């Protein structure tokens, strides 16, 4: 059992299991984008270790850039407004690969893809380390998925609980006490 702030977690996916999936996804990306000069867009903060591990395994000509999605409450409606920060590179005509830590409801990715599409990239693909199929509310095609997990809160390998837990090398899942 691992404590992160006031919550208890247990190991769900080991560091070795993560690295094996990272290797597999990197192999597929190297093959798929060999002659495409893709641009990888890493979504901070949670994906920073996944981005780094994938990027080290890429042997093709490629670029990486980092984006943040800022969510805030609209003062007038209950809907969550989102803003994309850091897209300061032209992606028109480029093959874009989004690197995400986790796709939960799919709302973040839906917003991201709609925003990127406005800039007319040649293609948009998605690689996510984790996916919670039961939580998905917006149907989005995920091209590369590391692990499908149950609909429960997880931390580790970059993912956090109120800022903590990112430094666990394995993925930890919340346990009820
Ligand atoms: P949606 O619901 O938009 O969520 O697909 C995507 C973003 O929400 C965060 N998220 C999590 N963060 N443990 C975390 O540490 C989780 O279990 C979790 N589920 C969603 C994450 O930032 C993701 O990019
Ligand atoms: Mg995230």
UniProtKB/TrEMBL annotation:
<keyword id="KW-0479">Metal-binding</keyword>
<dbReference type="GO" id="GO:0004422">
    <property type="term" value="F:hypoxanthine phosphoribosyltransferase activity"/>
</dbReference>
<feature type="domain" description="Phosphoribosyltransferase">
    <location>
        <begin position="16"/>
        <end position="161"/>
    </location>
</feature>
<dbReference type="GO" id="GO:0000287">
    <property type="term" value="F:magnesium ion binding"/>
</dbReference>
<dbReference type="GO" id="GO:0006166">
    <property type="term" value="P:purine ribonucleoside salvage"/>
</dbReference>
<keyword id="KW-0547">Nucleotide-binding</keyword>
<protein>
    <recommendedName>
        <fullName>Hypoxanthine phosphoribosyltransferase</fullName>
        <ecNumber>2.4.2.8</ecNumber>
    </recommendedName>
</protein>
<dbReference type="InterPro" id="IPR000836">
    <property type="entry name" value="PRTase_dom"/>
</dbReference>
<dbReference type="GO" id="GO:0046100">
    <property type="term" value="P:hypoxanthine metabolic process"/>
</dbReference>
<keyword id="KW-0660">Purine salvage</keyword>
<comment type="pathway">
    <text>Purine metabolism; IMP biosynthesis via salvage pathway; IMP from hypoxanthine: step 1/1.</text>
</comment>
<dbReference type="InterPro" id="IPR005904">
    <property type="entry name" value="Hxn_phspho_trans"/>
</dbReference>
<dbReference type="GO" id="GO:0032263">
    <property type="term" value="P:GMP salvage"/>
</dbReference>
<dbReference type="GO" id="GO:0032264">
    <property type="term" value="P:IMP salvage"/>
</dbReference>
<comment type="similarity">
    <text>Belongs to the purine/pyrimidine phosphoribosyltransferase family.</text>
</comment>
<dbReference type="GO" id="GO:0000166">
    <property type="term" value="F:nucleotide binding"/>
</dbReference>
<dbReference type="InterPro" id="IPR050408">
    <property type="entry name" value="HGPRT"/>
</dbReference>
<dbReference type="GO" id="GO:0005829">
    <property type="term" value="C:cytosol"/>
</dbReference>
<keyword id="KW-0963">Cytoplasm</keyword>
<dbReference type="Pfam" id="PF00156">
    <property type="entry name" value="Pribosyltran"/>
</dbReference>
<dbReference type="InterPro" id="IPR029057">
    <property type="entry name" value="PRTase-like"/>
</dbReference>
<keyword id="KW-0328">Glycosyltransferase</keyword>
<keyword id="KW-0460">Magnesium</keyword>
<keyword id="KW-0808">Transferase</keyword>
<dbReference type="GO" id="GO:0006178">
    <property type="term" value="P:guanine salvage"/>
</dbReference>
